[in-house]
């Protein structure tokens, strides 16, 4: 084996990966979208981003120049400061009981809070909780959710009694209320006519303006893609309506992610624009030429975002109960990109060259086959999957598993080589765009081996969880894999291996399911 090849796009200066927020005295990882605890910077750079020792020393020395607050000393933002830049935003819930500032990410946690704190055995979450956007500076044992204070319930109590500053590290309020607030809240605004919700964007131009001023920045991962997602794409929308519809669909989803009170409305708007875009895009990929090839390439990115995010009530990514819709977005994406092959040289030399580079054909990695991979977990997984059904008539199925595992090994090596520069586009290009139809067929049939390999891919997706259009999706994918494995003839050995993966790489999900 030769020397390890470092990605030319890997960060060479600390500011490419880290950003100091003086208002809060925290150091935010721009790729992970959360703050790093003062004593964990070196470990984060090593274990999460695989930076070499010399680079880590430089970054740690740079970070030591800043005054960093301990998690318990960080002052949470007020109304004018939310959301905090560079931190991920996820959908959450706020308890509506008086003098209770409890925040959490799931209805299960909220119901547990009601039972333990307010002595309510069961309740309808829609009446006793309010949907709110959540952020947290830190993860793990320093997790502490906060939201915009103006979105919290206003009751007869003093405003200070609702301050999110009262929320402890586990999200529990230090003050317990006894009755739910009955005054009009942000939740009720969802039921008002649109003309009474002045903050709702109801026009196409409003969505395009939001994309121009906000959304495109959240999709880019470099100065080069900044221009592509912004100026270049917006210029193409005036000529190609399917791309214009895709941009508006994406902007609506972005608004849904940062405005939970109007989330249903924005998701509906996104679906409406997607319904208008997809038929025209299908026609475009049947007649790709020099005139529309850039628009087709650009739309591929919006197709991915909308497909991964639009079905927000059932966000299972690569799994579906609808046989007609199974992985339709991957098939459309593959077909669209294959039609671009005759024009690839022009695309790589044009204004959308940064987009073309993200779908590179050769990952530039090699290595041992999956039967003897450098990753012992993948090797053990494949060996167990093949041993599960050693019958000779299943040789083709075993070949499909081996090929998918080989591609997973290459994807893991590619993403590790990319390091902090790796994006969600790299993660999608590295495996879903390459895996053979034979594996996808097995996955569609809920074969335990296919589901286990998908669980391994979920591990590779972990660094992308900070993206707004993937918030909570990877964890829910793991939950869905667990549900399907329980419904199959999965052996005890395979089930234990899956549980080990969940405990090791998704500990919060493992605890939640106990």
Automatic annotation (TrEMBL):
One of its GO terms (molecular function) is DNA-binding transcription activator activity, RNA polymerase II-specific. PROSITE patterns: ZINC_FINGER_C2H2_1. InterPro entries: Fun_TF, OrsD, Sterol_Uptake_Regulator, Znf_C2H2_type. Pfam families: Fungal_trans_2 (PF11951), OrsD (PF12013). Residues 95-118 form the C2H2-type domain. This is C2H2-type domain-containing protein. The lineage of its organism: Eukaryota, Fungi, Dikarya, Ascomycota, Pezizomycotina. It comes from Aspergillus aculeatus (strain ATCC 16872 / CBS 172.66 / WB 5094).
